[in-house]
């Protein structure tokens, strides 16, 4: 597929409903390739949850499909979805409740521009932070908030994994992503595809390093950040 996978997210016109459960076509397509990457970075060695279970916090869960797809593959990891849009909490909640491995917590209403302490998280306490397709569809303050929170609330040496379209050295490729970026800016001048070089600088300010860049289908990338 050469067209950006995120066009479906930009319009929100392709979403479908199953009861109150939302299905984003793009999430349906990208959840399996992302899972393959997560399997390289998430340690899961038992079948059950306990007080010491690692916590995986998703920022901007959208429909809830991603955590629903990932959680059964890591039964000893506790997944905490979150969203700033309260209209999406119902869908995420249904996915969480229906999870066969019962390791998805109920979603929390969370704006990543706030410190995660506002939502009860302690500094150096989170094992994984995951964020897909938010940075380009939100003002840059949200990206800043994401990195500041990762730098503060991840445990030392823990990972933040981000997914979406990114430019490199100020260059967006291919043409479909250039067009997508134009359409984002038409919708909101504060939106737009973020450049990996800027993100690396932001990461350095927040005690994080980019340790892997993985090319994904539909001209997206997964970026893996590690807290120093
Ligand atoms: C394109 S959707 C991606 C949803 C999901 N992560 C996925 O990949 O299917 C972008 C999401 O970012 C969320 N978002 C925007 N601003 C946010 C903020 N300040 N804090 C948390 N989430 C935010 C929106 O509510 C929206 O659900």
UniProtKB/TrEMBL annotation:
InterPro entries membership: DUF938, SAM-dependent_MTases_sf
Gene3D superfamilies per record: Vaccinia Virus protein VP39 (3.40.50.150)
SUPFAM superfamilies xrefs: S-adenosyl-L-methionine-dependent methyltransferases
Family to which the UniProt record says this protein belongs: Belongs to the UPF0585 family.
Protein's recorded name: Methyltransferase-like 26
The organism of origin for this protein: Parnassius mnemosyne
